[in-house]
């Protein structure tokens, strides 16, 4: 094997290790600060929800697609984010971090749920939305809330602490 | 809360991982403790103090610790 092939294979190995998939396969997922991906998920899904609210008619699917894209990205956050799952062993710092961040995520999802439900009720009461549109909006809201609950805890935990250096 | 974990760790030649194993936490938690990003529980503080075999107030304090250089100068003047 030539030196160039060897370097290429080594680069491929490093690339695969960088994704974290091998660690995930061994059951010890690598935890790291994810500051921007959850923000992206929230921006995309919030844009989608806004689109659904402003265009409840035939172009509703554009907003719905954006929410689903955000929902998909958000669902990857608990896998690679800094928070340990309940099935994993966690020390006291990690337990506190998980508790605080999940509480913030729950509060965000609850606030969106309360706001969204009251908006839907108001629009129905004022006869601005027919029942089919209200159903569509509530479906979009449900996926938006799930995206919030997946992305906000990772976002909170990632911004609350700065990443540590090698031997900082 | 202020602490001198890094000073004691350097003095005892312990890596962050070795100290973490001794007190049964993740090495990153020691890093966050040293940087002051996390306030330890009483149990963890006592465990850390036990590793270095010193009273807990020598490692943790509610007020900033005197700089080592200032301490040495003061001791030198007193002697």
Structural summary, described in words:
The complex is a heterodimer of chains A (168) and B (79). With 168 residues, chain A is mostly helical. Chain A folds into two domains: 1-29; 31-160, no CATH class. Chain A is 74% helix and 0% strand. Chain A contains six helices and no strands. Chain A has helices at 3-19, 21-25, 37-54, 60-80, 92-125, 131-160. The two termini of chain A are 40 Å apart. In chain B, helix 2 (16-23) crosses helix 3 (27-35). Chain B is globular. Chain B has 79 residues and is mainly α. Chain B has a two-stranded antiparallel ribbon. Chain B contains five helices and two strands, in the order βααααβα. Chain B starts with a strand and ends with a helix. The longest helix of chain B is centred in the middle third of the chain and has 11 residues, at 42-52. The model of chain B has no long low-confidence stretch (mean pLDDT 91). Helix content of chain B is 59%, strand content 5%. Chain B has a single domain, classed as 434 Repressor (Amino-terminal Domain), CATH 1.10.260. Chain B has helices at residues 5-12, 16-23, 27-35, 42-52, 68-78, and strands spanning 2-3, 60-61. Classes of the chains: A mainly alpha (168), B mainly alpha (79). The interface between A and B is medium-sized, with 10 and 18 residues. Chain B: Keywords: DNA-binding. Chain B: It comes from Sphingomonas desiccabilis.
Overview in brief:
The complex is a heterodimer of chains A (168) and B (79). By secondary structure, chain A is mainly alpha-helical. Chain A contains six helices and no strands.
Keywords:
heterodimer; A: mainly alpha; B: mainly alpha; 434 Repressor (Amino-terminal Domain); 2 strands; globular
């Amino acid at each position: 094997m030539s030196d160039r092939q060897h370097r290429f294979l080594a680069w491929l190995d490093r690339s695969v290790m960088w994704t974290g998939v091998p660690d995930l396969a061994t059951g010890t997922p690598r935890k790291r600060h994810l500051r921007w991906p959850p923000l992206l998920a929230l921006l995309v899904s919030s844009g989608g929800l806004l689109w659904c609210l402003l265009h409840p008619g035939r172009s509703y699917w554009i907003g719905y697609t954006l929410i689903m894209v955000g929902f998909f990205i958000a669902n990857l956050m608990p896998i690679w984010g800094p928070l340990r799952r309940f099935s994993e062993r966690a020390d006291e710092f990690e337990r506190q971090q998980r508790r605080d961040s999940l509480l913030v995520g729950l509060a965000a999802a609850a606030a969106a749920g309360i706001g969204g439900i009251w908006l839907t009720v108001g629009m129905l009461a004022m006869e601005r939305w027919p029942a089919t549109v209200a159903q569509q909006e509530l479906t979009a809201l449900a996926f938006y809330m799930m995206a919030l609950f997946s992305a906000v805890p990772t976002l909170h935990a990632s911004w609350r602490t700065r990443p540590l250096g090698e031997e900082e | 809360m202020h602490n001198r974990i890094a000073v004691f760790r350097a003095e005892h030649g312990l890596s962050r991982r070795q100290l973490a194993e001794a007190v049964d936490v993740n090495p990153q938690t020691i890093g966050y403790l040293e940087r002051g990003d996390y306030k330890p529980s009483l149990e963890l503080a006592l465990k850390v103090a036990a590793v270095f075999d010193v009273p807990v107030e020598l490692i943790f304090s509610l007020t900033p610790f005197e700089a080592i250089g200032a301490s040495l100068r003061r001791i030198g003047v007193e002697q």
